[in-house]
Amino acid sequence: MTRKDTTVIGRREELSLLRELIAPPHKESHVLLLLGDPGLGKTVLLAEAAREAEAVGMRVLATTGRESEQDLAFAGLHQLLRPVLDRVARLPTRQAEALRGAFGLSDDPAPPDALLTGIAVLTLLSELSDEQPLLVTADDAQWLDRASLDALAFAARRLESEQLVLLAGARGNVPPAGFERDLPQLLLRPLTRPDAGLLLDAQPRPPHGRLREQVLAQAVGNPLALIELARVIATDPDAGRRWTAEPLPLTGQLTALMAAQYVTLPPAARSALLLAAAADSPDATTAIPGLSADALAPAEAAGLIRLDTPGPRFAHPLTRSAVYHAAPFAERAAAHRQVADALRDQPDRHAWHLAAAALEPDEHLAALLEDSAAQAQRRGGAAAAARALERAAELSPGEPDKARRLLAAAELALAAGQADWVRELAGQVLTLTSDPDLRIAARLDIGWSLLWSNRNADAFDTLLSVAAEASPRLPAIAWQATWMAATVAHQTGLPEVCAKARAALDALDSRDGPPPSAEERPAGRADEYRIWIRACTDPFGDRADIVPRLRRAAGGSLSDPGTFGAAAWVLDETELAVRVLREALSRLRAPGVRGASGGVLSALQWACVDSGRWDDALAAAREAGDIAAAYKMETVAGSADLTTAVVAAMRGDHDQVAPLLARVRAAVDTSEYRGFAARIWQTAGLAALAQGNYVTAYAQLSRLFAADGTPLHHHFSYLAVADLAAAAVRAERHLEARTSVERALARVDPAPGPRLEQLAARARGLLAEPDSAEAHFAAPMADPTGDTWPFERAQLQLDYGEWLRRQRRINDAKPLLVTALETFRRLGAAPWTRRAESELRACGVTVQAPQGAPGALDGLTAQQREIVILAGHGLTNGEIADRLFLSPRTVASHLYRSYPKLGIAGRRQLRDIIDQQVTPRT
């Protein structure tokens, strides 16, 4: 810092770290979360950082969370960006509209898309930092509204090469929502005894002797407590005699101290200070009569409040809390009514302040809050809308309106991803009403919330019960509940759970009559749900009926392309799945549609992995991870991490795999989500295979099947059957594996589809005796459908080619090995590329590496590889940034760092490099 660090006593290391982040040159972005108990100095450190930033020529944008504005969607973000709102017009059109919609400045009635709003914030901050290095601070982030937190967290996770530093301070030891994943943290601790003594001695009238020791003991190193206790001793030396020897809880100390100062103020000053505490917004206080500088002067003199240009600000958030709660409810209510009267031109705040003053039911006020909820929902603030409806329900005089509003609040809490809150709200509906339709809808919400809470067993029982009860009267709810129950069945992979979900489908079919035949046009959403339920419960069975039904339905107008596309993915209609899921995603990215894209992205990323679109899979996984963080979707986040891990394993990025799998294990209960367990073992085994650790690979992959062939998961276990065989052969466990594989394959339909047939043929060829292996290898090669899964096809070609070479059939082996090598190089599967090259050399073929630097694309990071490929296909930096949810500056930085690794001078040569990677010369 340019000033002496002693201005903040006891925080030398923290100030040094902030100095490093802020000091020029500003070549890359930095994010840091300051965490710690109230009073430890987070606000002071942020203020010091802001002063230092301005001193070195940085622009500073700041926001402060306010407890009273937690329910006002995007209030914190608006405070942050208000000085630069004129720059919104320069953003890309969709981003500008999203940000205007978030701030209530758009004529479009649709709510802004949360993801697009986050991209707009990222782009705006990036462009500002291009003009001038930028510091962004968010103090008391724990009180920022959720929509603002999500937008800031999105930007924080995407910052890389901007001239930007983002600092956020929050109470406690846990980051605020959205900031939990992979962001640097600095946990503030209480001051050491020597530093606490220095700070105490630096006060205008420091205590001495016994009183000094008493203050040090009771403050326990909290800087704010030291300052406030010293002030009390200075004004009332006898106060020390009234304290007990044991320290009170810290928050209680400060609250008592600040409240004591409040009650000694003149009545007019107390009234004015209470008005400021009730308003809790400097810009709002300017419109409130009674909040004059003269009225607040005694409070300012006491150090409780500061008067500056926007309006009065409390010296510390605890001061506001202490003042507010020191007043009896009647006085607080009167203050809120006075604030509400002054804010009639701000309907949301007007309604909330009236609600804060209400004790009795009031239908007019409940209706105002319901209108406020609608406004919040249109701005994309689902959580704020849910809170408004919850309070409206509390104020509703009649039980029907109360139940209706609680149910609507539960639906919005669901959209906000707050499963516990959904369960609480829906539970109140069940307690309150006997209306059967409302009760069934509430129980459906509870089933959803249990599923989101990773409580699969409870969710499944609830959903089946809802389906059975709703079936005669509410068919839409019955189908939705059964569809969700089937999702649980697929996630668990337990045979008994799949059987119960299938029985629920049979019950619906017996009520509605048989489904249309495969030759008829499907019956709409019910048939789409029916296909999903059948696919989830038996992905390899009865394909002669279900696959034609799926393909025929794809030719019509789909009511739920997300569910339909996911069914196509489960049924290995992979190209159809990619097409339909992309269509579904384009709908869900439209302005106003939020959150629901998490499940679609999960299916799409796996379909892209299967079909060899690995960079698209990584992009989808990154987007899914952002949505999961915003909506607290742990399974969506886990699936995104697994996708990233499996691509890393196949590409030989070994260092990435273990941390990603560890994160999945920590987030998801694999005993309930056996699909995750199977994917984890498959990915770990694949990574071990890629590294040549065959014994380890076999140990991990063999976890996918019991000794009797029972699969760990009825779907995903079978997708690893060929890799299990490959590991077994190289670990010299082929006899044991042969028995296990045959027992496992005996449990599925004899015609499980071309994908599993190809995998099974490769497994049997690897495990067979030499004289019978070729029949297994050759059979799927005759079916071009196998090319749908290029990595699996290339593995088959590699193993078949290796077998042919060992049989001295070199000319037969070469074409297979060349084709496999082309595929592996195109995918960037470096370990398998090396194996194919080695096999070709053993056949006497001279294998030439692609032109460019040694290793070419294999030497890039996963993100650099994505950006290089997109740039090589002609996309601009802005278009790449929009697709990958980065800033254009970050894209440019990655390209700049990639060129030397590729051995090229610039962008124009990328197309040639990519073409040479796809089609190697042999």
From TrEMBL:
It holds the Pfam family GerE. Residues 853-918 form the HTH luxR-type domain. The keyword Cell division does not apply. GO terms for cellular component: cytoplasm. CDD domains: LuxR_C_like. Keywords: ATP-binding, Nucleotide-binding. SUPFAM superfamilies: C-terminal effector domain of the bipartite response regulators, P-loop containing nucleoside triphosphate hydrolases. InterPro entries: AAA_16 (IPR041664), P-loop_NTPase (IPR027417), Sig_transdc_resp-reg_C-effctor (IPR016032), Tscrpt_reg_LuxR_C (IPR000792), WH-like_DNA-bd_sf (IPR036388). GO terms for biological process: regulation of DNA-templated transcription. It comes from the Bacteria. One of its GO terms (molecular function) is ATP binding. The keyword Nucleotide-binding applies. PANTHER family: TESTICULAR SOLUBLE ADENYLYL CYCLASE (PTHR16305), TRANSCRIPTIONAL ACTIVATOR DOMAIN (PTHR16305:SF35). This is Transcriptional regulator. The lineage of its organism: Bacteria, Bacillati, Actinomycetota, Actinomycetes, Kitasatosporales.
